[in-house]
Structure prediction request, 348 residues.
Amino acid sequence: MKDKQTVATTQLRTPFYVVAALALAALLSWWPSPALAKTMSLSYANFPPAPTFPCVQMERWAEEVESRTGGRIDVQTYPGSTLLGAKNMWSGVIQGQADIGCISLAYQPGVFPMMSVFEQPIGFTSATAASKALWELYAKRMPKEFDRVKVLTLFTSAPSNIMCKKPVKALSDLSGIELRASGGASKVLELLGATPVSMPASEAPEALQKGLIKGILSSFDMLKDFNFAEHLRHQTVTNFVVYPFAVIMNRDKWNALPDDIKKILDELSAEQAEWTGQYLDAHIEESLSWSKEKYGIEVYELSDADKAAAEGKLAVMIDGWAEKAKAKGIPAADILTEVKALKAKYDK
Ligand code: DTR
Prediction:
C-alpha cells in the first residue's frame, strides 16, 4: 500500500501528454471550427430500384453534398420505395415523412400545369438537352405549383421508345396493344391506337409478370436496369416524349438549413440536372449493347411515313396542354415559345 507521500508524488508526475490532451479537449469543446459543426442528417426517398438512373443521380447528389459541406450534411438514401413509393412521394415530402424525395411529374396528373409542358411532344432528342431546358425554364419562371416544397434539381428521362413482347414495326402494329406508360406518354399511346395502362415505372415489372401489359413506353435504360430485355425482346425507336422528374425537399427542413448550406445546395441544382442527363444518355447506349449481347434484342425504326403520321397525330397534345394551362392562369403561348427556344439552344 502506498503512503500519502507516494500518492502525492504520483499525482505531481502526471505525464505531460495527458495534460496536453485534456487541455486540447477543453479548447476544442468551445472552439467554433466548421469541421466540428453539428452534422445534420437528411433522409432522401426514391421510388425505383437502386440501379436505375433516378437513384444513381441520388447517390451522386448525396456524395457531392457531403463533400461540399465538409460532412455537415449527412444524406441517408432510401431507394426502391423503402421510405416512400411513387404515388405518395409528393405528399410524403410535404408532410415530412422524408426530408427529400424524387418524383416523376407524370405520376401526379393535373398537379403541375406549367412544368407538364415537358410531358408534351416537343421533340427533345436527349436527356441532357431536355434536363438543361427543364431546369432553365423552372429557374426563370419559378412556377407556384412547386410553392409547397423546395426544388433541389430537375431532370428528365431520355426520349421514350417502345419495348414490347411482340414486334412493333409500323404504327398499325400498335393497335390495341396494352403498353404501360404515364402522363403525356399514356396520351401518346392513346392517340396512336394502343391501349395505355397508366402506372409508375416501379409497378411495371409486376404488371408484366401478371400479363396485364405486353410492353412499356419509356426510355431504353429500363432494358438493363429493370432487366426488361429478358422478356421484352422487341424495341421500336420512336423518340416520343420525355418524362420530367423533380427532386423536392420539405419546406420547413429547407428553411431550417443554415444559409451557407442553402447556397451550396442551390449551386448544385443546374449542375446536377446536366450531370444526370449526361449520365443517362451514356447509360442508354450501354443498356442497349448489354441487351443485344445478353438477350439478342431486335431494334426497329419506323418508316419516314409513319414518323410523319405519328407527329401529325400527336400535335393535338400541345394544344390540349395549352388549354388546360391557360385555364389555370398560365401564359401557355409564352411558355411554349420559351421551351422551343430552349430546345433550339440545347438540342443541337
Ligand atoms: N418516369 C419514367 C421514366 C423513366 C425512365 N427510366 C426510369 C427508371 C426508373 C424510374 C423511372 C424511369 C417512367 O415512368 O417510365
Notes: Confidence is low (pLDDT under 50) at residues 1-12. The two ends are 89 Å apart (CA to CA). The pocket of D-tryptophan is lined by residues 48, 52-54, 104, 106, 157, 182, 200-201, 218-219, 221-222, 243 (CB under 6 Å). The longest helix spans residues 259-295.
